Amino acid sequence: MSKPLLKAENLEISFHGVKAADGVNLEINEGEFLAIIGPNGAGKTTLLNLCTGYLKPSAGHVYLDGKQITHLSPRQIAKRGIARAFQIPQLFTDHRVIDNVMLSNAARLNLWQMLSPLDRPRYRDEAMELLRMFNLADHANDLASTLPEGRRKLLDIAVALALKPRLVLLDEPTSGVSAIERFGLMETLMTALRQAKVTALFVEHDMDVVRRYAERVLVWNRGHVLTQGRPEEVFQDQRVIETVVGAV
Amino acid sequence: MRMFLLGLAALVIVAIAGISAPWLQFLLSLAIAKGLAALGVAILLRAGLISIGHAMFFAIGAYATAFLTRNGITDFVSLLILSTLIATAAGVVVGAFMVRYRAIFFAMLNLAVSMVLFSLLSKLYNITGGTDGMRVARATFFGIAPGEQTFELIVFLTSLVVVMLVGFAVSAYFRSPLGEALKAVHTNEIRLEYISIPVWGVLLVGYTISAALAGLGGSFAAMIIGHVLPEMAFWTESGHLILVAVLGGIGGVAGPFIGAIFLELVHTFAASFTDAWSMIVGAALLFVIFFLPSGLYGLINKKRGGSAV
After folding, report:
1. Which of A68, B6, B190, B228 has the most crowded Cβ, counting Cβ within 10 A?
2. CA distance B21 to chain A (A)
3. What is the pLDDT of residues B33-91, one digit of tens each?
4. pLDDT of B302 above 70
5. Are residues A156 and A180 in the same domain?
6. Which residue ranges traverse the bilayer (chain B) (predicted)?
7. Distance from CA of residue B190 to its chain's centroid?
8. What is the mean pLDDT of residues B259-287?
9. What integer pLDDT is reported at residue B308 of this predicted model?
10. Are residues A184 and A76 in the same domain?
11. Are A153 and A169 part of one and the same domain?
12. Do residue A149 and residue A36 come from a single domain?
């Protein structure tokens, strides 16, 4: 049994009296691909916000490698190895595609290196490798704002992976991507994650994607974990069929 | 490379103009001094931050030069360096507070602090000379005290060298991860935090550099004019710096200098024809906003000229 990389204990948070997380417990082990599913408004993105320090829980704790990270900022948590890709891609739209990735690479540099040119052969090669993996190499010199939605999504994920994280949190990685490209994207993503030995937690609405790629599924509903387990077990659960599978 | 050669050619043209028409030296030197401060404002504009109080650092640089000469330091280079360092230190202190704010709050807080400085400079008569200001003794060069014309020529040529050095340094900064991150603050602060780049630190470095440039410009201005006044910190001077930056364009280092020289020339020539010179300057600004959104710099570099407004 591998040790939990990320652990959430009794997390609680509410918005205007509505509990988005009500005593939630969660563990993700090193090397695991965990999918979180649930109906719209269930609080899935809130969970990612809590784990990355964007929101602070009213109760409970989040641990990374056994060390508490509950009250750290998103920046401090990212520095400790948790990267995030967003449902709505968060890019530097006035920068070129390659600059987005190189800036993410640059986050690992020291102050002196931060004052040397960003566009240097070493950084460029590293960024191009990642862009090639996501079929974005042809767009390397385009402005990020000119990319179509599907490719913006890919770039957002590439920016997260450029940090060389230990754990990546992906918020609906296939939303905004056409049905034809969806499985291609996931194959690319899974290959990249396996190569880099990155643990992944992804929120997803596409049940076919979850069935095919998740090793474990956690079902979230109304601020609670309804059930969790292997995909084939979870999708047999009548409660899951009623509240989630039928609802998406 | 193309922009470097263009910049070099422009500097040579300005140098030739100044040497062949000595009356232009004062005007061009002063324009460059304001251009340095406007470049500081343009750096913040890259991050989407408008400072309506940056003249405070211009005034700090100018008054630092005045105090230093009063206390016996008259060497030109030492005055420039020390005054810039004092403005830089002030930039760190004020910036540490300012970079926590954005948009209108950032603009107004800068305005407020600059007006506090203006009031202090005006009221502390025994120290600052009040509204009369302070005289700045003519600087020496390595112990030699030149005559007025030689002094103006040396200051003019030195200002061109400084523009070149500052141009290299700020261009390198813009191309570095810190400079690119500064631009990224404008588009996506959240993403910057999520890739573990501290927005606070990025802005503080940008703010400090902009204060240093304004201080350097102020020191030049003090020595060129030979007198400093509290008005140097007044909010209209900060507005003037924004005007210069917008007019020149914030897409590159050259923009604010182009804007400053253009504005000084328009001002001088318009003022020689009519008292309503500000109307002509206003019309020039309107023309740039409507027809040259990347500023005058956009005329030279259409591809990379950043939006002026």
Report:
1. B228
2. 40
3. 999 999 999 999 999 999 999 999 999 999 999 999 999 898 999 999 999 999 999 99
4. no
5. no
6. 43-64, 76-98, 104-125, 153-174, 204-229, 241-265, 277-300
7. 30
8. 82
9. 38
10. yes
11. no
12. no
Burial B121-134 (b: 16+ CB within 10 A, else e): bbeeeeebbeeebb
Check whether residue A174 and residue A247 sit in a common domain: yes
pLDDT in tens, A9-29: 998 888 888 888 888 889 999
Same domain as A129, residue A53: no
Looking at beta carbons, which residues of chain A come within 8 Å of B197?
Answer: 75, 103, 106-107
The verdict on residue A202 lying in a domain is yes
Of B177, B187, B193, the CB nearest to A94: B187
Cβ contact, residue pair A103, B172, below 8 Å: no
| Whether B186 contacts chain A with CB within 8 A | yes
Cross-strand pairs, A9:
A61
Total domains in chain A come to 2
Nearest to A92 among B173, B175, B187 (CB): B187
Q: Is residue A201 part of a domain?
A: yes
Strand order in the sheet with A67-68: A18-29, A4-15, A59-64, A67-68
At residue A48's C-alpha, the angle toward residues A42 and A51, to 5°, is 130
Residue A130 lies in domain: 92-163
Which tokens is B30 given?
A: 């002063």
Residue B309 has pLDDT above 50, yes or no: no
* Residue A40, domain member (yes or no): yes
Q: Pick from A116, A142, A163: which residue ends a domain?
A: A163
Q: Does a structural domain hold residue A86?
A: no
Residues B76-129 pLDDT 10s: 999 999 999 999 999 999 999 999 998 899 999 999 999 999 999 999 998 998
Pairwise CA distance, residues B297 & B307, whole Å: 10
- Please say if the pLDDT value at position B307 is more than 50: no
